[in-house]
Amino acid sequence: MFLNMNLFADACSSFEEAEFVLYGVPFDATSSYRKGSKWAPLEMRKASYNFETYNGDLDVDLADVPIHDMGDCDVCCAVDDTLNEVYDVASSIVKAKKIPIMMGGEHSLTYPCVKAYKEKIGFVVMDAHYDLREEYEGVRNSHACVSRHIIDDITDKYVSIGIRSGPKEEYEYVKKNKKIRSYTANDVDGMGIDRILNETETYLKDCDRIYLSLDMDAIDPAYAPGLGTPEPFGMTPRQVRSVIRRLAPKTVGFDVVEISPEYDQGITAQLGAKLIRDFIAAKWKSMQKI
Amino acid sequence: MFLNMNLFADACSSFEEAEFVLYGVPFDATSSYRKGSKWAPLEMRKASYNFETYNGDLDVDLADVPIHDMGDCDVCCAVDDTLNEVYDVASSIVKAKKIPIMMGGEHSLTYPCVKAYKEKIGFVVMDAHYDLREEYEGVRNSHACVSRHIIDDITDKYVSIGIRSGPKEEYEYVKKNKKIRSYTANDVDGMGIDRILNETETYLKDCDRIYLSLDMDAIDPAYAPGLGTPEPFGMTPRQVRSVIRRLAPKTVGFDVVEISPEYDQGITAQLGAKLIRDFIAAKWKSMQKI
Amino acid sequence: MFLNMNLFADACSSFEEAEFVLYGVPFDATSSYRKGSKWAPLEMRKASYNFETYNGDLDVDLADVPIHDMGDCDVCCAVDDTLNEVYDVASSIVKAKKIPIMMGGEHSLTYPCVKAYKEKIGFVVMDAHYDLREEYEGVRNSHACVSRHIIDDITDKYVSIGIRSGPKEEYEYVKKNKKIRSYTANDVDGMGIDRILNETETYLKDCDRIYLSLDMDAIDPAYAPGLGTPEPFGMTPRQVRSVIRRLAPKTVGFDVVEISPEYDQGITAQLGAKLIRDFIAAKWKSMQKI
Amino acid sequence: MFLNMNLFADACSSFEEAEFVLYGVPFDATSSYRKGSKWAPLEMRKASYNFETYNGDLDVDLADVPIHDMGDCDVCCAVDDTLNEVYDVASSIVKAKKIPIMMGGEHSLTYPCVKAYKEKIGFVVMDAHYDLREEYEGVRNSHACVSRHIIDDITDKYVSIGIRSGPKEEYEYVKKNKKIRSYTANDVDGMGIDRILNETETYLKDCDRIYLSLDMDAIDPAYAPGLGTPEPFGMTPRQVRSVIRRLAPKTVGFDVVEISPEYDQGITAQLGAKLIRDFIAAKWKSMQKI
Amino acid sequence: MFLNMNLFADACSSFEEAEFVLYGVPFDATSSYRKGSKWAPLEMRKASYNFETYNGDLDVDLADVPIHDMGDCDVCCAVDDTLNEVYDVASSIVKAKKIPIMMGGEHSLTYPCVKAYKEKIGFVVMDAHYDLREEYEGVRNSHACVSRHIIDDITDKYVSIGIRSGPKEEYEYVKKNKKIRSYTANDVDGMGIDRILNETETYLKDCDRIYLSLDMDAIDPAYAPGLGTPEPFGMTPRQVRSVIRRLAPKTVGFDVVEISPEYDQGITAQLGAKLIRDFIAAKWKSMQKI
Amino acid sequence: MFLNMNLFADACSSFEEAEFVLYGVPFDATSSYRKGSKWAPLEMRKASYNFETYNGDLDVDLADVPIHDMGDCDVCCAVDDTLNEVYDVASSIVKAKKIPIMMGGEHSLTYPCVKAYKEKIGFVVMDAHYDLREEYEGVRNSHACVSRHIIDDITDKYVSIGIRSGPKEEYEYVKKNKKIRSYTANDVDGMGIDRILNETETYLKDCDRIYLSLDMDAIDPAYAPGLGTPEPFGMTPRQVRSVIRRLAPKTVGFDVVEISPEYDQGITAQLGAKLIRDFIAAKWKSMQKI
Ligand SMILES: [Mn+2]
Ligand SMILES: [Mn+2]
Ligand SMILES: [Mn+2]
Ligand SMILES: [Mn+2]
Ligand SMILES: [Mn+2]
Ligand SMILES: [Mn+2]
Ligand SMILES: [Mn+2]
Ligand SMILES: [Mn+2]
Ligand SMILES: [Mn+2]
Ligand SMILES: [Mn+2]
Ligand SMILES: [Mn+2]
Ligand SMILES: [Mn+2]
Predict the structure, then answer these.
(1) Any CB–CB contact under 8 A between E221 and chain B?
(2) How far apart are CA D194 and CA D210, in angstroms?
(3) CA distance E230 to C76
(4) Does A have 3 or more CB contacts under 8 Å with D?
(5) Does D274 touch chain C if contact means CB atoms closer than 8 Å?
(6) Which PROSITE patterns match (chains A, B, C, D, E, F) (predicted)?
(7) Does F140 contact chain A (CB < 8 Å)?
(8) Hey, how many other C-beta atoms are within 10 angstroms of the C-beta on B228?
(9) pLDDT tens-digit series, residues A4-19
(10) Which of A43, A52, A53, A240 to substitute to test the interface with B, most B CBs within 10 Å?
């Protein structure tokens, strides 16, 4: 008889039964320009009730998919302690052979989520920003450094899509670093997302498993105004959805980060919740075929 | 010397003189997720003063068109009573051989507007949602059921455009029901709106008269964030305008519904008001040619 | 390790252990002017994390008090069905000899909360409005009728405080009905809240148990702007707190209703959450003394 | 059957039948700090539907009072042209021996409202600002000069209440000008509003008729945040209501100006509408006694 | 050690050293529908800190470009006095052979900026509105007349892009006036921005110098909701950026006007600041090649 | 001719000439519940232009007072580095025998401001919270610990006013620590602010110099809703003004902290700016008498 509107809609399974395990991390302490991504897990859960359980494009009903929402991860004031907490949670989900879906919070939280996989993993990130600094304002685990540390510490099978911001050093780092791939927002506009996804699949063909991270500022501020560091000239939601649907079969972990819900009246959290639901449906569909 | 900013701009004619009769219905009681469409008639009227009287695309000056604004229809707490009120108003306008334009309020209000026509009529609706349930949460006349009751009770010449949400039953209902036509938002994106309109015109060629309903959530939330049930991946305003301009010659009744103006700072009501103005100009132009 | 920010802060006990049982009812369908009280349970829970666990005035630490949060009651579109749900929940808490605290939603929800007590109970309500109509816009169980039905059906030991709005019939009903007591906001201003509470205690001296209902519009809109039907010239939060602290010893059920959190940026939900916390502390303190 | 929510609630009489004639003036061109009072007539009308028709304090039902709402006065870009328009409207109402109630718009609009009376009239204004400059930023008819021009051109029976802002010259002007009376917000706090009203009545005892103007920034920003030039340490709504009720018997014209409704979510316009309703009730009651 | 966040980011040069000189003009007195562009300089400066100094598309680092921010121009209540002030400021920058960048404020401010050039200059404006009236509501220097006065008084080498609003007279004026060029938003959509820019370059081939003015309402309200007179069916930010980058080499003065930052939560001011930064980078790059 | 609206109004003197030196510190990294005090210096400067230069209560014209605004202090991501920066700035002002006025930013910034004085100093703080923890969430220099570190490291002549929140340990710390004084918001309500100020002056009679810190959450959220950690039942602005005026003669440093301007539409920053202006006027007046 009781319904807690603040668990993600259709997350009605226990941890044990679930294939997908959602959790939030209300942490935004290293954010630089505008803060507030700590409120995003709450707002994405609330927004999830706006949508039908059925996904007509993919013919998947989320009411039939075993999903669990663990609630919010305990956060600390210090970023390193919080990353350790997230690492423990992510690891426990990965160990249980379930698919973790992290709702940030800021982008630095992605690092422990990727770290939680023991075997080789490809990493695909949609972002307006390179996030390739070694440290930012003296903080190593800043949200502005997450891609760099993932490349340095975890995997060199790295693809970024939607990039349109960074200092000159980051642009040069990408040019020099031949192992990784990066597509700017101009590339998305010029080449089309399908050709980029073809190239991405070829590049990642040796990876059995992909981690997919969505920094919502990859999307144009018209569609996603509720952001900490909005950047004009971005991707459309359809392009982002194409990436999610195409990569879902290999994807074993997903996150949506950097939504600051206080800077709009709901549409960014709604889009984030919708893209999570679309990822679950696409992944579930691919799992059924096997 | 006196101007009431709260009648629709350029609605300076008496009921008797008018060819177009506007009225509002500030009713949102069956809305499920976010409410507030009761404020939309007031905000669309206010927004209408932002625009020039002249429509340069169509070379029509609304200052020259006989338009009347009746004000707001008296609403009741119970949806059925309100629908009866709307039916009486719509009928009186239809009987007077004028073109009613209803400013909602929620989508359930469209039913009595269509019912008011005595002869056979085609029905075209732009919407993100099928609205094909027989009842929703125990309420038959819910905004989530309006298309179904129109098909069942009034006309089987039915076209929906922009659809991207519904339970599985609604998708199956559409597949099985060969008499009606439905185009998803993906169809709009893939086929182009012009091809869809060609098909629609062919399908409706036996209808002399069309009723056209615009649930504003057909439009992408980037352009129309002020909605009760926003749904990403929607139509563009240009696509919606194409539908309106193409179908205007046959259209004998029009409505704009489901704007919740408290969820943005004006752009959705402005777009709604603009589309009403564009409909009037396009219809008036077609009337002059005859 | 996991914390769900969306259960009320410090509600860490199981139902069985708890002395206080919180639940939300996200229902606002009969609201007349501005809607949105359906979001109040979510926002009061969020706001509850702004406060310390310790209440220095009363020397009670909520971390030491056994509190349970059941989540949100399942709501229906129809008011009568929702009231039945609330009745079942409230009854189950009362039967378990715990103190229910209902977070509305609209004021009509108070009726089943009071009905849930089997023995005679006094009823004290703070409200700007009499809510003494027999029906409103054709709806019997409207939020505008709740006090009337409680008097008619449940108890004639009735006190209202803070009243400053109603049709003439309600003012006359109160004058004629000698059994009940009513204090206007002018009375609060003129007599002082302490004298009113003295009179109230005398009037209720035969009641062992009181139900206390707080319609937040009792409070002045300066302190509580996030309301469905704001009414100027209201009570101060200190006056409301005095009522709560004075009556807590006898109070066996409490609710906070009619907050519409979309009409401010947090202060009304924060005040509502704070007053719930103050009620719990005051009641718990009185329970320790026995 | 039709109701235009955008005429003031209960303004159901024709001009001829009415004793009270409301009109709006959506003009804010000389406002200096924050603009937007042009939207106040619309928002006060909307807010007026939040309130009961019956005033329990005064035992007057506005449904029984003959009130007319003329709509909005035509405004021009140039302040002088707009003041001429207002003068014509106000004069026509005064000539018809009805009581004009002007909903601004900015404070400069009060000048033609007072000018419309042919015989000697007392002028009482509640305001945070002296408005005693001869001109402001080169504009004679600025909202910052309205009191000065009324004293210079129309009447030296002048009382201001709630003052707490002005350049030194204005403070000295008041000290030197022994004919007029001025009470600061500190006076209101220290002397009490009743003593000030006693003095005011004595001072105005030779005036048969008073014009009463309410610049809403007289009120503290906690109660009235939606203002162009908010000034802390202001009057309470109860104090303002005392002035209105006490002076209503002699008052033959009233206005509420300087609300900027875009700077809050409704409470200032609601308070403005409520105070208009209270003035009408108090005045009507005094008229019935004669 | 001190940083004033309210000077435009990277504007670290003195006036003498600078090649680019920014200044704001917080003036919006002739705005007709919604006001508030007076706050745009402040908000664009604030927004400028959201962006990296490096422009990866153009390989220009703004930290290396000599930019000066003069602060805000002193504004008067009367439009003519303000235009004189702007003329003096713009002239002093032009005389010093630097590139002025004016941050409005309303569009009327562009007139003195163009007037400041002594030799023949081409004028390109992006706008939703023709702004070709001779006067508007009795005011000659209204924001609705700026293009007309520039054509009449300063230069007949005139191109407008993005137009979709105007009275019939303005459409006819453009048709008759063969010397000027105008491209509607429909043209942009139909011809593509590149073909329009080809034609524009040909048309302006005899002009050595161009002044470029960006009325932000040229852009669709989805991307730029914070506007005084939003007009649906507008240009995309990418199209605007194409115009800026293509014309930058010849451009010797630039402005961004008509942002009303109170009508959104930052994205319009952010886009305005970004486009200013893009203009500086594109112009600087072209200057380096010479 | 140029005016930068973003320096505090009337801060027209050079550092050398000035007696009062304002600076902002846009830092909020340790804030726990709601962030955003980093924007407060910008918004208080903007708000300062709403007010007259003349203070009629005190007969001081700020245009005649030598005030300098240094702009914003450079902030770092790490709190300790930022406190060092603030210490350097504050020390340089103190050394120059001027009165520093710091606009926060969060309350932790007060510590280096007080530390900057070399001789014994009394410390008076208005706050809802004790801020007496030794560390908060692992951070020593948290805004929740500022009072404790000032007592432990700098001065035991300590008075807090307006307190109504803290863990039990803080309440006990105050009870045990007989050297310091603390007045709760209940004390302010019960004793009156004047009696508290009498006691405070007696307690501080041996201190020649006082540092005065205003955490804006001392004030009730009705008057100051734009806060990081709003706490109901607070002080009125008049009570705060009484403290400022009474203590100004001995006060040699002042700050206003913890305003989060994104949580209201201006009134908290306006009140903060007004109180700074009132402090300057009161202090200047006391300096003239000597
Ligand atoms: Mn990122
Ligand atoms: Mn990013
Ligand atoms: Mn619909
Ligand atoms: Mn829909
Ligand atoms: Mn009630
Ligand atoms: Mn009520
Ligand atoms: Mn005034
Ligand atoms: Mn004023
Ligand atoms: Mn323009
Ligand atoms: Mn324009
Ligand atoms: Mn503090
Ligand atoms: Mn505090």
Answers:
(1) yes
(2) 18
(3) 40
(4) no
(5) yes
(6) ARGINASE_1 (PS01053), ARGINASE_2 (PS51409)
(7) no
(8) 25
(9) 567 899 999 999 999 9
(10) A52
pLDDT of residue C4: 57
Over the range F100-137, which residues count as b (16 or more CB within 10 Å of their CB) and which as e? bbbbbbbbbbbbbbbbbbeeebbbbbbbbbbbbbeebe
Mutate to test the interface with B, among E220, E268, E271 (most CBs of B within 10 A): E220
- In chain A, residues with a C-beta closer than 8 Å to the C-beta of E264 are 225
pLDDT at A144 exceeding the cut of 50: yes
B267-277 as b/e: b if 16+ CB within 10 A = bbbbbbbbbbb
* Other CB atoms within 10 Å distance of the CB of residue F13: 16
Q: If we measure between CA atoms, which residue out of B187, B217, B214 comes closest to residue B124?
A: B214
CA distance C31 to F215: 38
Average pLDDT, chain D: 95
Q: Give me F242's structure tokens.
A: 């009484």
The sign of the torsion formed by the CA atoms of B271, B277, B279, B285 equals: negative
Beta-bridge partners for A181: A159
Neighbours of D1 (CB within 10 A): 10
Nearest to E27 by CA among E97, E118, E89, E104: E104
Q: What is the ipTM of this complex?
A: 0.96
Divide the 290 residues of chain B into consecutive groups of 10 and give the mean pLDDT of each group. 70 96 94 91 95 98 97 87 96 98 97 95 98 89 93 96 97 96 98 98 97 98 97 98 98 98 97 98 93
Q: Which CATH class is domain F20-289?
A: alpha beta
**Average per-residue pLDDT for chain C:** 95
Which residue type occupies A154? Answer: I
Contact (Cβ atoms closer than 8 angstroms) between residue C54 and residue C62: yes
Q: What is the pLDDT of residue A1?
A: 36
Residues of B in contact with A57 (CB under 8 A): 164, 186
- Do F25 and F258 contact (CB within 8 A), yes or no? no
Beta strand pairing status for C67-73 and C20-25?
Answer: parallel
Measured between alpha carbons, how far is D2 from E262 in angstroms, rounded to an integer?
Answer: 35
Q: Please spell the DSSP secondary structure of chain D, one letter per residue.
A: -EE-TTSPTT-BS-TTT-SEEEEEE---TT--SS--GGGHHHHHHHHHTTS-SEETTTTEEGGGS-EEEEEEEP--SSHHHHHHHHHHHHHHHHHTT-EEEEEES-GGGHHHHHHT--S--EEEEE-SB----S-BTTBTT-GGGHHHHHHHHT-S-EEEEEE-B--HHHHHHHHH-TTSEEEEHHHHHHH-HHHHHHHHHHHTTT-S-EEEEEEGGGB-TTT---BSS--SS-B-HHHHHHHHHHHGGGEEEEEEE-B-GGGSSSHHHHHHHHHHHHHHHHHHHHHHH-
